[in-house]
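## tool: complex_structure
## caller: assistant
## args:
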Amino acid sequence: MKTWIKVLTIAVAATVLIVGGSYAYFQYFTRTRLLVSTTTSLWETGLLNATEQAFEAKYWIDLGFIPVGTGQAIQQAQGGNVDALLVHSPSNETQFLQGGDGSCRKIIAYNFFTIVGPASDPAGINGSTTTDALKKIVDYGRSNNTRAWVSRGDGSGTHTKEKTLWAKASYSYTQISQESWYASAGSGMSATLNMANEFGAYTLSDIGTYLKLAKDHTISLVQYLAETKDLLNVYSVMAVNQTRHPSVNFSNAITFIKYLISDDCQQLIDNYGKDEYGESLFHSAVQLLKQNSTSQIVQWIKDYAFINGTECPPEYRDPRYPELYS
Amino acid sequence: MNILDGLLKALQLIFSGDPRIVEITLRSLFVSGSATLIAALWGIPIAMFLGRSNFRGKFLVKTIFTSLIGIPTVALGFFLFMIFSRENGPLGFLGLLYTPTAIIIGEAILVAPIVVSLATSAIEAVDPDVASLAKTLGASESQATFAVLREALDGIFLAGIASFNRAIGELGVAVFVGGFIAHVTELLTTGIKLEIDSNNIDVAMALAIILLVMVFGINLALNLVQRRKK
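## result:
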């Protein structure tokens, strides 16, 4: 029996050593960790990689992104499993703030969604308005009984936008998503674009991911709809509420938000991808909103992404950090 | 990007020693190596006990371990996510979610049944006379046990290799409790998934090649070592 006790002692000791050692190493001998769950479109374009490098060069914080859809990002934040989130779905963000899980929302950037499809444009949507284009795609799909539309289908911000667009065109999402011409991919933007490319179908994409794949010649889909108000895409950052979730790394989340709205980072956002794609993938929003000009785009952002007339209602701000909103 | 282009770029990345790929590879080796080690430390003593003793319900215990070999990684990953979830999980207070440690624990649980089942079979296959002979020659109970263990070494090696392969190739646990964070919990398998999502086919291919070469290479090396000993 003594042998068993020895073996058991060794097993326990070694397990504790390996588990504890790796935990201590990753927890204490590395930088403080800041976890941000984020939408796939920001991650897949490579913007966040560039942001991370610039941020880590400036601060002694280890920034880690978990790229998931907006829906899942919000779930992770509600469970207190991440410190901040970067998302693009104003309606979900409003709910998240009202649920008491978030604070310090800042709008950081915008660009546009686009509807892309095969070069032959079988549904003939070129030059249509968004609503008309969707109607044509539905008619084309129903009459030809072919896969006409691929949806993200993953509860992401892009998916939420798609649902809004169907509603605007007076279709019931629950109904059409059951029809045979409608394919729900349940995956990220690149995978969805690849699938639409294979099927010769149309899809809704953020402009950044589309340009990246089109430039790599991975997909031959063509962009049909221009920058209209109903295709506006606004990215915001929020910290997870410290009162509700005491374990989060709140002060580092604020450092991160401050960095995102700093001139340095806003410039980085503006210039990201310009050389490679010939146009900016994202446009900075902070200065634009601060100047509060009467330009059309400011009005569009306000209409689409403001909550009660502001980017963050006072009750969800943190009085310790008034500089975020000055 | 076509397959050939991707392959060429992948090989270029590997042979230029791209720091990110090196980092991911080393982390993968460390995580699945530690997991296998923990599983072996617990599994082999259990196998020694199961293989050398007879008790009521032994068949049932063995059956449970054998069926656990097939546990779907996605299901295990999901359960562990719930357990480690920081606020609602019973072990959330440990703060392990989205750390490499969580992946190590998860993969150790995943591969432990492989160690137990294969090692038990190996020990059971050893001629029972080995132990009695050792005892007749004056060995103590523990020395006799180690004599049996030495005879079963080949099977135990196999158990270790199989465990390591399962650990390094699994995705479910790494995705759910690791969260594929760059420079922190990104492994070969999650790296492949992420790079395909980001449409970086060349990087994905490089990681896949490394994964395959490593699995083949380690098996080959261990087999050679074993053969030389005979």
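## assistant note: The radius of gyration of chain A is 22 Å. The CA atoms of residues 17 and 23 of chain A lie 10 Å apart. Handing back to user.
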